[in-house]
């Protein structure tokens, strides 16, 4: 199917159908076929479709570039976000302890299912460990209600969807995403999803 779509675009660079097919292709194919489609078609009646596909490709390129900077031993990107009590908190202010950055949301079923285990490990290692919950996509009221309902006693900040959005910086693809950082601010482990392997890493790292 992909090969046939590509053949059509190559044969019809001036067709709106080529833009429509480009929108159905995997985002990584954009660069290959973008240079074939004519500028007139890109700016024509399907310009909104084309621009949307282009934006998705650029976002994925940014995510991949950022992901390459999130390997174990690399410094975790610093950020400052609003706290649940109205202040601001920088990741770098937590140096000296291990830190789990937990990207989550009240809307995320797996995030909520994983909270009991997170609470258990926070109690187990809280003399060495801080958890920083980064709420994503929730309205302020829903975020605060979820923290109270589930009795999440660690630190909390809220991600912004504007210029301060850090999900791109941390190459977030799914929720929850957990990033373990050492006391010097270097990445130890990056895990997407509610994976028991993350807690094995905590025991291996903090249980010494």
As a percent range, the share of helical residues equals: 40-55%
Number of domains: 2
Q: Kindly state the number of beta strands.
A: 7
Q: How much is the average pLDDT?
A: 92
CATH structural fold name of the largest domain = Glutaredoxin
Uncertain residue segments: none
Strand content: 15-25%
Number of helices: 9
The string of secondary-structure elements, in order, is HHHHHEEEHHEHEEEH
- Termini separation: 53 Å
- The CATH superfamily of the largest domain is Glutaredoxin
What integer value in Å does the Rg equal?
21 Å
CATH class of the largest domain: Alpha Beta
Largest sheet: 5 strands, mixed
What structural category arises from helix and sheet content?
A: alpha/beta
Major sheet strand order: 5-4-3-6-7
The CATH architecture classification of the largest domain is: 3-Layer(aba) Sandwich
From the spread of the alpha carbons, the general shape counts as elongated
Protein name: TlpA family protein disulfide reductase
Q: Can you tell me about this structure?
A:
This is TlpA family protein disulfide reductase. With 208 residues, this protein is α/β, with parallel strands linked by helices. It folds into two domains: 66 residues; 127 residues, Glutaredoxin. The protein is 41% helix and 17% strand. The chain has a five-stranded mixed β-sheet with strand order 5-4-3-6-7. A two-stranded antiparallel sheet has the order 1-2. β1 and β2 form a beta hairpin. α1 packs antiparallel against α2. The longest helix has 21 residues. It starts with a helix and ends with a helix. 24% of the residues are buried. The mean pLDDT is 92.
């Amino acid at each position: 199917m992909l090969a046939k779509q590509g053949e059509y675009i190559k044969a019809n660079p001036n067709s709106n159908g080529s833009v429509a097919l480009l929108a159905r292709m995997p985002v990584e194919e954009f660069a290959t076929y973008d240079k074939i489609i004519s500028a007139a078609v890109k700016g024509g009646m399907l310009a909104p479709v084309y621009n949307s596909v282009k934006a998705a490709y650029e976002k994925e390129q940014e995510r991949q570039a950022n992901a390459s900077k999130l390997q174990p031993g690399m410094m975790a990107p610093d950020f400052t976000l609003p706290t649940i009590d109205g202040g601001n908190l920088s990741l770098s202010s937590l140096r000296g302890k291990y830190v789990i950055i937990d990207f989550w949301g009240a809307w995320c079923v797996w995030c909520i299912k994983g909270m009991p285990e997170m609470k258990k490990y926070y109690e187990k290692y809280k003399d060495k460990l801080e958890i920083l919950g980064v709420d994503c996509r929730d309205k302020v009221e829903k975020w605060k209600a979820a923290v109270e309902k589930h009795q999440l006693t660690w630190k909390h900040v809220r991600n912004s969807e504007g210029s301060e959005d850090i999900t791109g910086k941390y190459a977030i693809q799914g929720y929850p995403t957990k990033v373990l950082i050492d006391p010097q601010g270097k990445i130890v482990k990056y895990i997407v999803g509610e994976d028991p392997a993350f807690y094995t890493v905590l025991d291996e790292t903090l249980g010494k």
